[in-house]
Amino acid sequence: MPKSYNIAVLKGDGIGPEVTEAAIKVLNAVQESSQNLTLNFLYGEAGYHCIAEYGTNLPEKTVALIKRTHACLKGPMTTPETPGAPVSVAVTLRRMFNLYANVRPCRSFPSVEALKPNIDLVVVRENTEGLYSGAEFELSPGVGVALRIITKEASLRIAEFAFKLAAKRKKHLTYVHKGNILRITDGIFKDAVKEVSLKYPDVAIDDLHVDAATMQLIKKPETFDVVVTTNLFGDILSDEAAQVTGSLGLAAGANIGETYGMFEPVHGSAPKYAGQNRVNPIATIMAASMMLDYLSEKDAAAKIEKAVIDVLTEGKIRTADLGGSSTTTEMSNAIASKIR
Ligand code: NAD
Questions:
Q1: Residue-level pLDDT at 6
Q2: 240: helix, strand or coil
Q3: Taking the CA atoms of the chain, what radius of gyration do you get in angstroms?
Q4: Which residues line ligand 1 (CB under 6 A)?
Q5: Residue 239 catalytic?
Q6: CA 33 to CA 30: how far, in whole Å?
Q7: pTM of the model
Q8: How far apart, in whole angstroms, are the C-alpha atoms of residue 334 and residue 148?
Q9: Which candidate, 95, 204, 266, 270, has a CA 20 to 30 Å from the CA of 22?
């Protein structure tokens, strides 16, 4: 049965347009090589560059466009850091569409120098609350407060997601927290994980304080499978895990809710490299693969993954982060050609 999907594409800021166009090129190669798949790309404006024109980084018309699509491929965006400026588009979209699970796989790739050769883990990060709740105030000059909101409901929901994933993988889940200091908030999170664990007796669980987890990720990354944690800890751990496997330029992320999915690289807009055609597009290309997998287009998703692995295994095309001098375009062309 031919399948047709509307895909929202937000190119973003900095290196966003380059890496997003690279992923679209690869998706077009997938469409050309499959008889039954049509992807209609609907381009929306979002990001720092919109603020001057629209007064916001997420115009209403873009939200309306997203609502007409099956999934979103999102490039990284620059977030202004002055208090009162528009908040992160990623954080807004995650909350607006209730994309509660941020899934960030990290694994060693062939011919890519990683700390260990056999790393294959997934960070599952709670995506809607914690220190990203947006509740931050200046009580008086020089005294600031940020609320770390942790609810039982969101903790149960992310734990359920993580256990389901662990049950399909190596049946090992590590929950990461700072329960010795954040006794109430991380107490709620820990209790939720333990409650859900009763439904998954085949999944072995262990836990780590977040500081110990950052150390273990470097010392013994191969011992992790699924890691579930709260919002900020997951953001930090997934960047670390990406670098442990070789480069942030390889790490893709999915933001999954009950009815919608948004897919993006883990990295940001790296403004200092914008327009130079030198960054690695694989993170965004792998995000596109995760998107096809989410849409149940398993063969198409696997084609992208295989093409990425083949190009990395050959080792002829390497971007600067992988120790080479190939361009973003050369990398995406090589992956698209493998697919064709
Ligand atoms: P960053 O991820 O943009 O860059 C950190 C460093 O990682 C870069 O200097 C570069 O050395 C490396 N890097 C990143 N992407 C790479 C790629 N594709 N290939 C090779 N190397 C790569 O993080 P930052 O400097 O902390 O943030 C820059 C901007 O991005 C900020 O405005 C931040 O708010 C934003 N950001 C956005 C998102 C998002 O849109 N989801 C995520 C993180 C950061």
A1: 98
A2: helix
A3: 20
A4: 19, 76-79, 90, 247-249, 264, 267-270, 279-280, 283, 321
A5: yes
A6: 5
A7: 0.95
A8: 44
A9: 95
